Structures are given as structure tokens and as C-alpha cells.
Amino acid sequence: MQVMEAEASTSPALTEASDVLQRLAGAVRAQVIGRDDVIDLTVIALMADGHVLLEDFPGSGKTTLAKALGEAIVDDQSPTETNHAVPIAAFRRIQFTPDLLPSDVTGSPVFDTNSNSFHFRHGPIFAHVVLADEINRTSPKVQSAMLEAMGEKQVTVDNITYALDPLFFVIATQNPLDLVGTYPLPTPQLDRFLFKITMSHIDRDAELAVLDTWQQRRSPAADRVRVTRNEILAARRSIDEHVYIADGIKSTLVDISRALRADERVLQGNSTRSLVLILPALQVLAALRGRAYVNADDLDMLLPHVLAHRVELAPGVADFAKVLRDCMREPLEQLARSTLKAH
């Protein structure tokens, strides 16, 4: 994919935003070898204010990826910007198990004998980057608490709502092979994730590089290239304001979705929410590629990652990539023809 090697943007605001993402992706790449495509998609999701679901196997580098991303972000809020009662960590890892309770994720009221009153103890979800490890191993009740936080950027405990940081970002994982004792996420819950990324083993050269450089990559986080929280939030705003999405792009998205829903090989199509979620991701990708507008190439690259976990195929149909290509062909051709006429 290598979208981070984009040419310079014509807009100073987009150039600055692209520089922030280049530094962020570079910091993660220094710790995670052989996963450039996954890193690019993860950074795009962070900038688009989405979340990522990784299908992986043990030891594939998911924890290293999430931790490297969290440690690359410096919280530079001033005392007037932050609520000191809400501690925000750079990175937290939650290992989901069958006996986990919602309060183990969100936090819970604790009785203070000194003040003779209850106070709220914040859970591990109060972090910039949260790794929800093996999210399908916990009960639906815990999954629902996690997904409320992802969708609303808040948690509610004892009828009191606590806001999460605007930068709050979740990387959830599930093992596609070991399904014993799991609670698979239903399609409406999968819809909360912007991307679903299937990871495979890295190639031989990358695996050798991991073995050769493991000591160097253990350097303290303070010695690495880092970006600030406010730089990321400012880059989000710049991309939203300066990257244009033409009506033709939106029409193409709708037409592809309608074609998928009408295809006899599809049991359930994607939601309208998925089309809303993909728009900022397309803007981020366009900015990284040095453009102030979204084009068909951006659609072609991101749609498989956005739609694969949202579309349920009919029994006996296994090749989603082929179904999507077939449904994309005519809308993309119409987009190309309308673009040529406009010029």
C-alpha cells in the first residue's frame, strides 16, 4: 500500500497534517516490522476517529503495534484543558476473558472510608489507545459496555456518565482459528469498527529483521519520535476542512452499497452508517496521497476493509472480494465517465 510515501500536498494545512501522520506512522514502524499495510490502515483509522478490529493469531505483533502507537502520542493538554479527576494513560491492554465484568473495563464506584462516600475509580478504558485483546472471549454484556464507549466516547456507571478523551482509539483483536468458548460479535456490533484487518505471517526477510533488531527496539519510549495529542486533533480538523468529497464519490458509495444489497450472493448488506464512517477515512487517505480531493483510487483501496465485516454472504458463497469487485465495477465506470465529462 505504502500510502505514507505520498507527494507533498498543495495545501499548507494538509502538508502539516500529513507530516503529523508521517511521524506517527514512522514511530510505529520503528517498533513493528513487516506490517506497513496494517500500520497505515491503523493510522488512517485513528485520524478518521474510527476503530480497528484485527483478526490475528498469537504472537503476531498486535500488542507491540498498539503499545507503539500509544507511546508515540504525547499528552500535551494544559491544566485548563484537562480534568485531572480523569486519568488518561497513553496505552492500556485489556485481556478479555469469560469471567470479566463490565466494571473491569469501565471502572466502578469505590467506598472511601476517610470521606465516608463513594468515588469513581476509572477503568483501563480511560486511555488514548486501548488494546481490547480477544474481544470475542468475553460475555455480550462486557462487549456491549465496550462498544458503547467506542460509539459514544463515554461510559455510564450508576447513572453517571463519564466522558472519554476525544482521541480515544480501540484496537480490538480476535483469533480466527480458536473459536472454542467464544462469543462472536454479531453484525450490528461489528459495524462499530471502521476497519477489519486480517493479518497473516510476515515474510522471511521481515522475520529475520525482527530477530536482528529486537534489542534496539527495546529503547525507552522517550527516545523515539513522538507526536502530541493536540497535533493529531488539529490534523483531524485540517483534513476534515480541506479535503473535498465530490457528490459523485458519495453517489458511487451509495450505488455500490445498493448493488451489494441487491446481489443474490449477499444475505445482508452494509449499513448507511458504514458509508458515513468511510468518508473521513477517504479524506485522510487522499491527504496522505497528496490530494485535496477524494478519487476512485481511494474508494478502491478502502472499501474492502470497510465492508468485509459488514456484509454477510449467502450460504455457499465464500469469496467476498469477487462479490465486491463485481458490485463495484459499474458504479466506478459511471464515476469515471462523469469525471471525463466534467473535464
Structure description:
It is a single chain. The protein is of the alpha/beta class and 343 residues long. It has two domains: 3-228, 3-Layer(aba) Sandwich (Rossmann fold), CATH 3.40.50; 243-342, Orthogonal Bundle (Helicase, Ruva Protein, domain 3). 45% of the residues lie in helices and 17% in strands. The protein has helices at 12-29, 36-47, 62-71, 102-106, 140-152, 187-190, 204-213, 229-242, 247-262, 272-288, 296-307, 320-342; strands at residues 52-55, 73-74, 89-95, 107-112, 117-122, 127-133, 154-157, 160-163, 169-174, 195-198, 227-228, 266-268, 312-313. A five-stranded parallel sheet has the order 3-6-9-1-10. Strands 2-11 form a two-stranded parallel sheet. A two-stranded antiparallel ribbon has the order 4-5. A hairpin with a 4-residue loop joins strand 4 and strand 5 (117-122). Helix 1 packs across helix 2, helix 1 crosses helix 8 and helix 9 packs antiparallel against helix 12. The longest helix has 23 residues, at 320-342. It is globular, with a radius of gyration of 21 Å. The two termini are 28 Å apart. Residues 2-9 have low confidence and may be disordered.
